[in-house]
Amino acid sequence: MRVLLIAENRQTTHVTAFPLGAACVAGSLRKAGHDVSVLDMMFLDDWKKKLQTLLEDFRPDVVSLSIRNIDNQDSRNTVFYLSGITGIVRFCREHSEAPVVLGGAGFNIHPAGCLKYLGAGLGIYGEGEQAFPMLLAALEKGAAINRLPGAVWMDGSHPVVNPPDFIADLDKWVHPSYDDFEVNSYQDYSSGTIPGCVTVQSKRGCHMKCIYCSTPFMEGTGCRARTIENVVREMACLNERYGIRRFFLADNVFNFPLSYAKDFCRGILKSGLSIEWQAIMNPAYGDDELFGLMRKAGCVFMSLGNESGAAPVLRNLKKGFSLKKVREMADLARKHDIKFSSFLLLGGPGENRDTVKRSVEFVEELAPAVVSLKAGIRIYPGTGLENIAREENQIAPGQDLLFPAFYMSPAIREWIWDYLEETCRRHERWSI
Ligand code: B12
Ligand code: SF4
Which of 40, 46, 211, 306 is most buried, with most CB under 10 Å away? Predict the structure, then answer.
């Protein structure tokens, strides 16, 4: 089939995020024998012109849309990106009769809500590599789709969502088609705090139980890893073919399993690649050997997801690590010359004036290169935080969490923003 795949994200918050999900889907569609055309909107000035040309010249049998973010997860300056995406779906409908299939990390937050809101007919919940070709095969044959894993469709005016299957063997299915994207532009364009880079992913899934997180739904609770040779080969190929030397590991938790993280670094060292990379680290796992290996292998920066500096709040968020461990990780990073950012996600259950103050003091003591302060936690459907928010009437009965809603401890609501603004005025590289 002729499949048009649109990567809609144009956000440059922190970084121009490489559309790795769309690249993975493009790769699997090509492998399944489809004729694929990709439209990446990130660097386009006039997407309508380009999209119209593609719809008219390529004449897709199916139009598919990769949705990365539905909102900016920001309780103070909330932006609901999905409203902008309605225009893209409408435009496709006006210029083509092809069915529109949705997918992506943002779509996975609330597949039923996205499908209905955008007025599209079909979607894939979860990973697209295996499920999307299966959906296309069914469409081609005119077969039923209601038993396909991850299939999302409209039954009259009601969206129906099938549970996803998680890919067991990532090596077999994950072959991102980087060639379909302007990888060099992603490396060259630095928009915010993170220098331009290209993303790679070595594993999926997270076993942790942080009460607000959507990842276990999207990627499962078991860790599934690619072989290290495979990931390193991909990075070497990007390096040789396009001169890519700055990478971002898109893994939710780079440093788990610890032995895998160490082997990954050893794999890069063995390959002789001269690159720089950064990763998202959970403070729960790490030792001197890991940090030494990371630095030698080219890691220059890590996002240390400590979220709070007050033990009772960490416990309530079910973060699964201690403040002692966070300090140890920061010390190791400093020792091995890896810069790091710290992130405070304030306002969770049990947060009060004392815990906020302790968190700020804790981060001052850590002295990261960059600090990001957020108050109010986005309530994602199906999470423990949703249950707490409902019990405390922070969300109304029946309130649809497609639209951004935030948990905010009542004890800090009145004064938190003034306090954070004042805190940022005292610290050069801290921001809200
Ligand atoms: C790495 C990451 C980052 C890095 C990005 C670094 C970089 N250079 O790219 C950093 C930390 C900078 C970041 C920033 C932000 N992020 Co972020 N990020 C992630 C993370 C952990 C992984 C994304 C990724 O690359 N995944 C790898 C690919 C392979 O997976 P995928 O995109 O999901 O694609 C698969 C499926 O979705 C599906 N699929 C994808 N497209 C399509 C299309 C079709 C047609 C089909 C059928 C299927 C399909 O198949 C793919 C392969 O299996 C996700 C969490 C997560 N678990 O997904 C959050 C996530 C995407 N981020 C999120 C958000 C909100 C943001 C920010 C807006 C936060 C902020 N306020 O700063 C910014 C926006 C950045 C931007 N410019 O867009 C949210 C989005 C949810 C939402 N509310 O909309 C997520 C889901 C986290 C969460 N809360 O659960 N992020
Ligand atoms: S460690 Fe990260 S990805 Fe895992 S559940 Fe917690 S916040 Fe989510």
Answer: 306
CA 214 to ligand 1: nearest atom: 90
Amino acid at 132: F
Q: Is residue 140 part of a domain?
A: yes
Distance from Cα 314 to the centre of ligand 2, integer Å: 13
Is residue 267 one of the residues assigned to a domain? yes
pLDDT value, residue 131: 98
pLDDT bucket at 192, cuts 50 / 70 / 90: low
Which atom of ligand 1 is closest in space to residue 248's alpha carbon?
8
Residue 284, pLDDT score: 97
The full length of the chain comes to: 432
Host domain of residue 156:
2-161
Beta bridge partners of 3: 36, 62
The domain that holds 87 is classified in CATH as 3.40.50.280
* C-beta of 409 in contact with ligand 1 (< 6 A): no
Q: Would you say 68 and 10 are in contact if contact means Cβ atoms under 8 Å apart?
A: no
Q: Kindly report the backbone phi and psi dihedral angles of residue 423, in degrees, each rounded to the nearest multiple of 5, phi listed first.
A: -60, -45
Strand-by-strand arrangement of the 246-249 sheet: 198-200, 246-249, 276-281, 299-307, 339-346, 370-375, 430-431
Are 42 and 152 members of one domain?
yes
**What's the mean pLDDT in 98-127?**
98
Q: Which ligand is closest in space to the CA of residue 370?
A: 1
CA separation for the pair 13, 192 (Å, rounded): 7
Query: Is 360 near ligand 2, meaning CB less than 6 Å away?
Result: no
- Domains: count for the chain: 2
Mean pLDDT of the chain: 97
